[in-house]
Design a protein that fits this description.
Elements lengths: L2 H6 L3 H23 L5 H19 L7 H21 L6 H20 L2 H28 L1
Helix pairs in contact: 2-3, 2-5, 3-4, 3-5, 3-6, 4-5
Length: 143
């Protein structure tokens, strides 16, 4: 069970340190990319966070900011492309701004969302990742 889901079994007050830790990890990851010290793990951290933000938007939390989340996801894909091309995990200024905005939206979503909605968003994110992994595995088997 993830730290977030474990915290959800308790109270909203106990959730705040967990959500703050999630945000801190994201901002640390973003800073590492800014300095050219990113990694696959940090990329995954930001990616999962943005998927949770996308799900929270679908649940009605800051749904009007869906374009900001989508822009942040696009910025993350640019980082991945750049890493494959040049071997460096770095973010450019424009993508840094998009990711910062996406994380600010996520912060607001966490503040506004109920415990139940945060748990649903994380569960949907995990279901999506598992479903994608299964589809990739099946496609490889068919090839």
């Amino acid at each position: 069970m993830s730290p977030l889901l474990r915290a959800l079994t308790y109270s909203h007050a106990s959730l705040e340190p967990v959500t703050q830790a999630m945000l801190l990890r994201c901002y640390i990851a973003l800073d590492a990319f800014r300095r050219g010290d990113g990694s696959r793990d940090l990329f995954s951290t930001l990616g999962r966070t943005l998927l949770i933000a996308e799900e929270l938007g679908r649940l009605g939390h800051w749904a009007s900011a869906a374009a900001d989340i989508e822009s942040a996801q696009g910025a993350l894909m640019h980082i991945n492309v750049e890493e494959h091309a040049g071997g460096e995990w770095r973010v450019c200024d424009a993508d840094y701004l998009a990711l910062s905005t996406g994380l600010a939206v996520f912060s607001e979503q966490l503040s506004a969302a109920s415990l139940d909605d945060i748990a649903k968003a994380e569960a949907r994110m995990l279901e999506g990742l598992l479903g994608s992994e299964r589809a990739t595995r099946q496609a490889k088997e068919l090839a």
